[in-house]
Amino acid sequence: MMAKTLGIMGRKLGMTRVFSDDGTAVPVTVVAAGPCPILQKKEAATEKYAALQIGFEEIDEKKVTKAQKGHMAKADRGLYRHLKEFRVDSTDGYELGQDLTVEMFQPGDKVKVSGTSKGKGFQGPMKRWNFRGLPASHGAEKVHRSPGGIGQCAWPAKVFKGKKMAGQMGNKNVTCINVEVLDVRPEDNLIILKGQVPGPKNGLVMVRKQ
């Protein structure tokens, strides 16, 4: 079941390092998040569940459809490129058009960060699954990076689904949990997170309370 935690959207600016009080270098990721206005409130009485829909990155009017324009006009906060819905236990205390900012997080908080991992294209089994490869000894010709046998016996006479083979690598939604918030800078809409988060520079990420 999906966890009912509220969050905001942002862009991964990249990685750097900060120094702790004892001089230890700590790798961090800087995320420019929000402000994200609330564009829609869903009540349990009418929608069977409670949720808040937020927007991120304002967009020109000519780049949205009439239906999208009418939907976002109800909040009277402009038009946005990305919309995201967060299920919550209750929408009490939230108003249509209200901004969600990085101030919802505090240093020391643990958060979940979701993003799309870097796409690696079509890769072989050694890179994709960390296979050892075949022996590179006498008599082995051009088979060093092959996956080896994949078939079964006369029964079931097929290759099972999910077998580790060559294929598309990366470009999937990835969530990192227990990511620590080291610093929050509301004046710049920045969150400083300890360690790495999914995705490339300028990739869209979602930061949620845990």
TrEMBL record:
It comes from the Bacteria. One of its GO terms (molecular function) is structural constituent of ribosome. The keyword Ribosomal protein applies. InterPro entries: Ribosomal_uL3, Ribosomal_uL3_bac/org-type, Transl_B-barrel_sf. Keywords: Ribonucleoprotein, Ribosomal protein, RNA-binding, rRNA-binding. One of the primary rRNA binding proteins, it binds directly near the 3'-end of the 23S rRNA, where it nucleates assembly of the 50S subunit. Part of the 50S ribosomal subunit. Forms a cluster with proteins L14 and L19. Belongs to the universal ribosomal protein uL3 family. This is Large ribosomal subunit protein uL3. The gene is rplC.
